[in-house]
Design goal:
Length: 124
């Protein structure tokens, strides 16, 4: 949900560079690259007062108004729903008492010899 709000409120510009009627470069976050004719066109534009290269900026605006309402302004059915939702979510993460292990401190006796090997009794 937060990602959706972030993407809907982000604004950015798309810069396009045309040389004549041909699209040379398009850039979203950086400046569009100029064509090689740009320097030549600058000199010629001083003489003829015309320039065939042009830049276009397209601004894509995101949403700038977000409606924030207070809890008191909500209808009563929404208040009940939100309250029950929050209560049930917090109830899911209820802490459980620590489990008591009665034989935690018990250490088994040391084995002196393996009885099955001594008696040669094996499970087949």
């Amino acid at each position: 949900m937060a990602l959706l709000v972030l993407l809907s409120t982000v604004s950015f510009t798309v810069e396009k560079h045309f040389c004549g009627d041909v699209l040379i470069d398009t850039a979203v976050f950086t400046e569009a690259q100029k064509c090689m004719m740009e320097a030549f066109e600058m000199e010629q534009a001083l003489i003829t007062k015309k320039n065939c290269c042009k830049d276009e900026l397209e601004v894509i605006k995101g949403q700038d108004k977000l409606k924030l309402s207070k809890f008191e302004e909500l209808p009563s059915i929404h208040k009940v729903f939100i309250t029950s939702l929050v209560y049930s979510i917090f109830d899911l993460f209820e802490t459980v008492d620590k489990e008591i292990i009665p034989h935690k401190d018990y250490s088994p006796p040391n084995l002196v010899a393996d009885i099955q090997v001594l008696d040669q009794v094996f499970i087949i």
